Amino acid sequence: MIIKHQGALLLFFLTLTTTLVPAAEPATSTVSNSADADIDFDINATDPNGRTLMHYAAWNGHPGCMRDLVARNATVHCRDNFGATPLYLAINKGHTACVKILLENGALANDQGPSGWTALHHAAWFGYATCIALLLQHQAFINAPIAGASASLSTALHLAATKGHVECMAVLLKNGARSDIKDKIDWTALHYAAANNHADCVELLLQHEAEINISGGAAKITPLHVAVKAGAVACVEKLLAHRNINVNAINIVGQTPLHRAVEEREFRCLLMLLRHPKININIRDTAKHTALTIAQEIKWQKAIDTLETQNKKSDYMNELMSL
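Above: the chain's sequence. Below: its structure in C-alpha cell form.
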C-alpha cells in the first residue's frame, strides 16, 4: 500500500509525537524511503498552508525530528504560503537547537521574507540573543535594514532597542552593529530606546559611544526630546548624566527639551532638566515662546511657579557674577 498524505493533521502529529528512525534502519522506520516499506511518505509534502515536516519540527522545537529529516534529505530552506521558512519559525519560538541544525545544513541566514525581514531581524525582535550569536557565526549581515518598498529600514539594533532586549543589543554591538544608522523616519536605536523608556538599553548604547545629541525625524528631535515627550524619567536621567549631553538642543521649531516638558506636562522631567548646570530657561522657539510663556499659556500653575523661582535664582546668580 502506497500512502502519500499531505494533510496538516498528519504533519503536525508526526512532528509532535515521532522521532524518525535513522535511515540506516528502514525496516522499523516510521517514514521510509525503502521500496519495501508499507508507507511511502513524501518527506517534503506540504499541508494546505504550504508547510512541510521541517516547518513543523522547527515551530514545535523538535531537534531530534529535524536531524532525522535532514538525514532523509528533507529540504531545509523552503517557504510556506505566508513566506515563512523553518529558520524563521524556529527563531520566532526561540528554539536554539533547531536554529543551529538548520544553519549547519544550509538554511540561508540572510534570506529576506516577503516583508523584508531577515532571520536576524526576527531574533532581535523576539529577544533571542543566542540565536543572534548563531546567525552572526553564519555570516548574517549585522546592519542589514528591513528592505522593501514600504519597509521601515530598521536594523536588528533598532528592533532590539525598541523592545528593550538589552542582551541582544550587547551581542549586536560587540559584533559591530552601528548605532548611528537611521531608519525610514530618521531615528536611531537610541531614539527608540529613549521613546520606550528602556534605560538599560540607553546606558548600553552610550557606553558604545552612540551619538547622544543626534537629531532625527521630521521634527529633528534628539533622544532627550524623545525621552521627555514620552515621560521616560529613567532615560532622561541617563541622558542628562552623560558628559556630552546638550540639554539645550533645539528641534526644527526651536524648542528645547524644556519646552517639550512643559507642553507635555511632564513635571518630573521638568525638574530634572532644571537641575542641569547648563540649562538655559530663556531660549525662545520660532514662535517666540520660552518654557515659562508656554506654561502660562496652558495655565499650568505648578510649572509657572517652578520656572519663575528658577528665573529668580538665575537673576540672583547673574548679579553675583557681575559684582
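The radius of gyration is 28 Å.
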